Amino acid sequence: MPKNRVAVIGVGETPFRAHVTDKTYVELSQDAAKAALEDAGLTPDDIDAIVFSMAPTQFMGVNDVEKWAVDSIWASGKPLMRVHTGGATGGSALHAGYAHVASGMHRTVLIVGADRVAETPDAQHILNLIWDPFYEQDFALNTVTMTALATQRYMHKYGTTEEQFARVVVRSRKNALQNPNAHLKGNITIDDVMKSPRMSWPYKLFDICPRSSGAAAVVLANEEVTKKHCSRPAFINGIGGLTSTVFMGDRVGPYTDAEFCDEAELTFAGAEAYAQAGITNPIKQIQVVELYDPFSSIQFPQLESLGFCERGRAQNLSDDGSFDMGAMLSVNPSGGTLCSNPIGVTGLVRVADAALQIMGKAGKNQLPGVQNALSTAIGGSVQFVNCTVLGADYV
Amino acid sequence: MLGVAMHPPSAWIADKRLEEMVFDTARAALDNASVDRKELDHVTIAASDELDGRSISSMLLSAPAGAYLKDEIKVTDSGLVGFCLEVMRIESGRFHLGLVSSWNKSSKAPFEDVMRMRCEPFFTRDIGLNMSIADGFFAQAVSRSYRISPSDANAAVHASYQQARQNERGMRSEVPSLEAIASSPYVSVPLRKLQQAPITDGCVSMVACSGEWLRKHPDRRALARVSGLSWRIDDYQLGEKRLSSLRGFQETFRKALSMSGLRDVSQLDVVEIDSQTSFHNLACRRALDLPSTVQVSPSGGPFAQNPYFCTGLVHAAEAVLQVSNRAGAVQVKGAARAAAHGSHGFAQQGNAVAIFEGV
Question: Is residue A127 part of a domain?
Answer without folding.
Answer: no
